[in-house]
Design goal:
Largest sheet: 4 strands, antiparallel
Shape: elongated
Radius of gyration: 26 Å
Number of strands: 19
Strand content: over 45%
Structural class: mainly beta
Oligomer: single chain
Length: about 230
């Protein structure tokens, strides 16, 4: 920077370089992933991946405000989205110190795990079945007793989750009803693990006739404790 000084008649001009230095405030920002899947976060063109339960810090940001963008979703073994994608876009007012930002799931969403202890693989997966918000994921829940990860979904009073029994001669299916077979508290970062133990119509689970047959289904990923913040 050059500072120029003149007298009141405009003569006797003197210029000095590096006379004034302007210092902008610097802020360190740490983002915490409180959800159930990896979060891709971008800040000023720098993109980082944050694993569930982990955090990442961006150092020495100058200025007074900055906007970040982040997204996540459930994924199949083939890296296809399950359920709905979740996004965060927020302008932060910097504090010239250290900031912590929690990446939380809103209370109208939940993450779904399914454990299939039945004798039939289950597919496809319907959430909010029979409503305008119904989703259909062409994924298979193997009958191997493992807890499988699916994705994020919107929760409503009376939400119905349904999965067909693959290979059932009678084309049966299992349903779970919110408020009856499971309950969510409408809090941040909520999840539920649903169990299928139905082997025939008279056993656990409500059975009926399936009207969907035939497509190839994508594989779900089994859950591990380090992929769920609530189980760290």
């Amino acid at each position: 920077m050059v500072l120029t000084v003149k007298n009141d008649r405009g003569t006797d001009t003197e210029a000095k370089e590096d006379y004034v230095t302007i210092l902008y405030p610097r802020t360190d920002i740490t983002f915490h992933n409180n959800v159930f899947t990896d979060v891709e976060l971008t800040l000023k063109g720098d993109t980082r991946t944050i694993e569930p339960g982990d955090s990442v810090t961006f150092f020495d940001f100058e200025g007074f405000e900055i906007t970040y963008f982040a997204e996540t979703s459930g994924k199949t073994a083939e890296n296809q989205i399950v359920g709905q994608a979740v996004y965060w876009v927020e302008k932060l007012v910097l504090n010239a110190g250290e900031m912590n930002v929690d990446l939380d799931l809103s209370q109208d969403l939940f993450y779904l795990f399914i454990t299939n202890n039945g004798i039939h693989d289950l597919a496809p997966l319907y959430v909010n079945y029979g409503t305008l918000e119904q989703t259909v994921d062409k994924v298979v829940m193997r009958a191997d007793g493992k807890r499988y990860r699916t994705g994020y979904y919107r929760i409503n009073p009376g939400t119905i989750i349904r999965a067909n029994w693959l290979g059932s001669i009678d084309n049966d299916f299992t349903i779970w009803v919110h408020g009856k077979d499971f309950s969510l508290p409408y809090t941040k970062n909520q999840s539920v693990n649903l169990y299928n133990t139905a082997r025939k119509k008279s056993e656990t689970g409500q059975a009926g006739k399936s009207d969907i047959t035939g497509p190839e289904y994508l594989e779900l990923l089994p859950a591990t404790t380090d992929q769920s913040p609530s189980e760290r």
